[in-house]
């Protein structure tokens, strides 16, 4: 299994609510730089948080890759989602090559759980950072971090 975890690009500092924050122009550029690393990768799905900035990030990647399937929007990829539940839900999808588009602190916590087996060891992920993980299965502590790119 290959899993890519992408944090959304830079977003506006303020909006009516956190889930309504839009990407900035700089954030859009960051996302496109990260998307370039996904060109030619075998993706089965792009799965994204429902928050506006994650949806915009996923749409930019979708377009840049010319991905043939719609982005899957799920409620279990928001900033405060339970990482154990996110792993279980992702595993239930039964896919081999998935791109997740989400937020801090969830993205770093997922890295810590999947690579090191704990919540505290996740690598920092700035806006539009892209992590690539590989493993036999989606199991805590048993995936390998192949790369972590920051735009």
UniProtKB/TrEMBL annotation:
Name this polypeptide is given: Phosphohistidine phosphatase SixA
An example Gene Ontology CC term for this record: cytoplasm
Highest taxon of the lineage: Bacteria
InterPro entries in the cross-refs: His_Pase_superF_clade-1, His_PPase_superfam, SixA
NCBIfam families, alphabetized: sixA (TIGR00249)
GO molecular function, one term: protein histidine phosphatase activity
Natural source organism: Pseudomonas bharatica CSV86
């Amino acid at each position: 299994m290959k899993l890519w975890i992408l944090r959304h690009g830079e977003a506006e500092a303020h909006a009516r609510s956190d889930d309504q924050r839009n990407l900035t122009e700089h954030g859009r550029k960051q996302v496109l730089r990260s998307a370039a690393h996904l060109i030619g990768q075998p993706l089965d799905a792009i799965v994204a948080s429902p928050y506006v900035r994650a949806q915009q990030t996923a749409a930019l990647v979708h377009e840049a890759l010319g991905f043939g399937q719609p982005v899957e929007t799920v409620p279990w990829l928001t900033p405060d989602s339970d990482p154990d539940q996110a792993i279980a839900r992702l595993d239930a999808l039964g896919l081999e090559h998935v791109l997740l588009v989400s937020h801090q602190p969830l993205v770093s916590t997922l890295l810590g759980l999947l690579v090191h087996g704990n919540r505290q060891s996740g690598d920092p992920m700035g806006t539009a950072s892209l992590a690539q993980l590989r493993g036999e299965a989606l199991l805590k502590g048993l995936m390998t971090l192949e790369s972590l790119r920051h735009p």
